[in-house]
Amino acid sequence: MWLVFISMNSNQLNFTQISLSEKKLPGDLAMWIFILVELTAFALFFIGFAVTEQFNQQIFTEGKAKLHTVSGVINTIALITSSLFVAFSVNALHRNKMKQVAIHLCFALIFAFVYLFVKGWEYQSLFSIGIDIETNTFFTLYFLITAFHFLHVVLGMVILGFMLVRTFKNAYQNNYSGFESGACYWHMVDMLWIILFPLIYVI
């Protein structure tokens, strides 16, 4: 498909054709389908949480007061920073700067580990005061949703680690698709937390 743009220059009409086929989503179509499925699953979780809160406002208010908001902020910063380094790695890949790609991926993984450590500490602190998944409706949903996201972070880190190993093997010099697919998945994980954090900790 082609689009025709018309512009006026020096009393002459200029016609410019741009092929829409030149523009495409980064990564593989299969990854985008997988991301869509994952987003749908989380959307159902988020909707379920919001609806349940309307019928249990006191329990949810008391539950949120027991959460560590500061740890949530730290995790938000960690994941956003990690996602930023992944974006840097994609940019470096397109410039064929493989050493920079590897460095950026390492930093992305470091900040991802920060998220895991802080989240694990948060779980432990709740367990230490007798709060678990069976405490009440709020904490049932809290543990289900955050643990589900936690697993996605772990999977994302495995993917980033795989990307790092393949970078050392120069596997992406002629084909960016696989690398971009992994990057898109990690950005999805980051985006989900940005929605999850205010929904569960703040609002």
Automatic annotation (TrEMBL):
Q: Cellular component terms, GO, for this chain's entry?
A: plasma membrane
Any transmembrane segments, and where?
29-51, 72-94, 100-118, 139-165, 185-202
UniProt subcellular location: Cell membrane; Membrane
Domain Heme-copper oxidase subunit III family profile: start-end pairs: 1-203
Instruction: Report membrane topology.
Output: Multi-pass membrane protein
Q: Which SUPFAM superfamilies match?
A: Cytochrome c oxidase subunit III-like
Does the record bear Transmembrane in its keywords?
yes
Please tell me where this protein is predominantly located: membrane
Signal peptide positions are none
One biological-process term from Gene Ontology? aerobic electron transport chain
- Which keywords does the record carry? Membrane, Transmembrane, Transmembrane helix
Recorded hits in InterPro entries, A to Z, give: Cyt_c/ubiquinol_Oxase_su3, Cyt_c_oxidase-like_su3, Cyt_c_oxidase_su3-like_sf, Cyt_c_oxidase_su3_a-hlx
What Gene Ontology terms describe what this protein does at the molecular function level?
Answer: cytochrome-c oxidase activity
Family, according to the entry, reads as follows: Belongs to the cytochrome c oxidase subunit 3 family.
Q: What is the protein name given in its UniProt record?
A: Nitric oxide reductase NorE protein
